[in-house]
Amino acid sequence: SRHSDPAPRQPAAPDTTAVRREFERIHGRAPHGVWAAPGRVNLIGEHTDYNDGFALPMALPQRTVLAARRRADGLLRLHSAQGDGRTTQLRVAELAPGAVPGWARYPAGVVWALRERGLPVGGADLYLDSTVPTGAGLSSSAALECAVAVAYDELYGLGLERPELARVAQYAENAFAGVPCGVMDQMASVCSAEGHALHLDSRSLEVRQVPFDLTGHGLRLLVLDTRVQHDLADGAYAALRAGCERAAKLLGLGALRDLTEPELPAALAALPAELVPLVRHVVTENARVEQAVARLAAGEPEALGPVLTAGHASLRDDYRVSCPETDLAVDTAVAAGALGARMTGGGFGGSVIALVPAAAAPAVAAAVAEAFAAAGFAAPAVLEAVPSAGAGRLDRAGPGPVGGTRPG
Ligand code: ADP
Ligand code: MG
């Protein structure tokens, strides 16, 4: 091939032993354990989670690794390899929304959210290191929250089920960090299984593991990180969410999830014009999730391609959350031989996924890089999405019980 491999194999996660050693250097003692939680890409089902709908995310090999040790004095001490080089010290009893600035609000928010549920959790020393790019639409925030949630679950012997951990992490992001996200990112981070995509029902939090064998079908899933995040993202997300809720109310529905494709024309005719494209996106997007699941279940992952590209058109034309960079990446990838492509995540930048025949991967990545250069955009970063395991403990054979009674 005249192009080099666009996403050469690299260590997917920080090294557990190195994280342990760094914890000891910073906190002066050994951790009680080491946990990790992955970032994600969403295959299809965008802006559906806060409408109680469906999504099909998968965990990335890239993850946030967290070493943790319980403290009895009510202090929470936080240090990140991607932080400001300092240790943030907080008092657990004084945690309150708005009181913690910067990145520490995500992990502190999880501790606060657990206490809001009446759970008996106290302080800890934490050190984390991550390979999930931040702000790239790959959910480094959920990876961080979910790593803390699974660590606290064991450190304090809580025994929470996975969907409860995801809800705690989502509540931390919504109510403590101030980001009105749905639950998909956190569910993907805690519930995913290696080699599978996760069929998520955002209302019941029921999940189904859908086999997703890329290599066996000669496919690769490229992640093209556009490295842009346009400023309107925050306000626009909240406005879109409010628009969906208003539409559901006008239609007399609990959520837009309750509207099916056959009912769509009559519903659209009854809505004010500005809500029509929003509702059309959500309803057709839920249908695309079901199509995608059916194609994977039939053992035809290559047939996902057109579903991805149709999903992108809906995000671009109806939901209007794409941007010149994501549109260019999608169009160029498809023209260069991708079976399908779409932006993944909330939008206004972030990353695009492209499903490609393995042999075409270098050409697709090169074509996107060339198109970005020609448009004057910064070069996109390329990762490979390999369906990977969800959050868990990394050092099972570690130093013995944590949380008192539960096996370590
Ligand atoms: P995304 O979740 O798509 O990566 P967000 O804006 O939701 O983007 O979350 C990114 C923010 O999460 C960062 O700006 C930072 O505050 C926090 N964050 C994520 N990972 C880390 C990390 N390893 N160390 C410190 N902060 C992190
Ligand atoms: Mg995020």
TrEMBL record:
This is Galactokinase. Its EC number is 2.7.1.6. Residues 22-70 form the Galactokinase N-terminal domain. Pathway: Carbohydrate metabolism; galactose metabolism. It comes from Streptomyces antimicrobicus. The record marks 40 as: Transition state stabilizer. Its main location: cytoplasm. PANTHER family: GALACTOKINASE-RELATED, MEVALONATE KINASE/GALACTOKINASE. Residues 296-373 form the GHMP kinase C-terminal domain. Signal peptide: none annotated. The gene is galK.
